[in-house]
């Protein structure tokens, strides 16, 4: 059974940096583009970032451009999300997701296109 396990969340102060990580297992990792989404309390799930199968292409949600960086290591089956200059509005549950990418566009911001999801890691930013 495919597993995506996020880690790295926590309670931080505004302006801090944080790195989230997602470890994938039981899938051919290089066949999947990967994405990060987040959901704040009482709000809909929001696209954060996505990365292509090779890592050569990335895309970001408008609210995080310039502060967030997505990366992947296909040798280790991991995808990371570097978050800088954290703001209180970044407080949310962050989810890693995998999208089968062979024969499809390089990245996607639509949660409906993702096949597998992790359980999430919580990020809380205090002001």
Descriptive labels:
127 residues; single chain; 7-stranded mixed sheet; mainly beta
Describe the structure.
- The chain is mostly beta strands.
- Helix content is 0%, strand content 50%.
- The chain is built from no helices and eleven strands.
- It has strands at 3-7, 10-13, 18-25, 32-39, 46-51, 58-60, 68-73, 78-83, 92-100, 116-117, 121-126.
- Strands 2, 4, 5, 6, 9, 10 and 11 form a seven-stranded mixed sheet that branches. Strands 1-3-8-7 form a four-stranded antiparallel sheet, with no helix packed on it.
- The chain is globular and about 45 Å long.
Any chance you could write out the topology, listing elements then pairs?
Elements lengths: L2 E5 L2 E4 L4 E8 L6 E8 L6 E6 L6 E3 L7 E6 L4 E6 L8 E9 L15 E2 L3 E6 L1
Parallel strand pairs: 2-11
Antiparallel strand pairs: 1-3, 3-8, 4-5, 4-9, 5-6, 7-8, 9-10, 9-11
Unreliable stretches, pLDDT < 50, 5 or more residues?
Answer: none
- Binned strand content: over 45%
Look at the structure and give the mean pLDDT.
96
- The beta-strand count equals 11
Structural class category: mainly beta
CA-CA gap between termini? 40 Å
Number of helices: 0
Q: Over the alpha carbons, how many angstroms does the gyration radius reach?
A: 14 Å
Quick summary of this structure?
This protein is mainly beta and 127 residues long.
């Amino acid at each position: 059974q495919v597993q995506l396990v996020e880690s790295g969340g926590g309670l931080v102060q505004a302006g801090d940096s944080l790195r989230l990580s997602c470890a994938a297992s039981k899938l051919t990792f290089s066949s999947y583009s990967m994405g990060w989404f987040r959901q704040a309390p009482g709000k809909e799930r929001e696209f954060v970032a996505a990365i292509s199968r090779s890592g050569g292409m990335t895309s970001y949600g408008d609210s995080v451009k310039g502060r967030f960086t997505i990366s992947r290591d296909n040798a280790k089956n991991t995808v990371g999300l570097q978050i800088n200059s954290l703001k209180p509005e970044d407080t949310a549950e962050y989810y890693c997701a995998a999208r089968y990418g062979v024969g499809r566009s390089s990245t996607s911001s639509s949660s409906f296109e993702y096949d597998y999801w992790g359980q999430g890691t919580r990020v809380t930013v205090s002001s």
